[in-house]
Amino acid sequence: MAITRTDEEQLLARITTNPAIFGGKPIIRGRRLAVEHVLAMLAAGDSPETILQGYPWLEPDDIRACLIYARRLVGRERVEPLKLEAYEGAS
Description:
The chain is mainly alpha-helical. It has four helices and two strands; from the N terminus they run αββααα.
């Protein structure tokens, strides 16, 4: 099922910030769970089901929102290639 831009915007509304929580890092629905923590759990191999069990208030759409948030950040990222020059004496 394709997610439309409107669907993405609705999901991203779940990602909020609060300077009093984690220094203003993106969090889920104003709660003390940072987007980066959800992404770290997924990266460590935790399934969405396992994460949802560990945080009973969390909803599947919250996890989707974290993934969309990360994709959008990476989508804006630009990496300039470095020109490496060989130095003398290199083998």
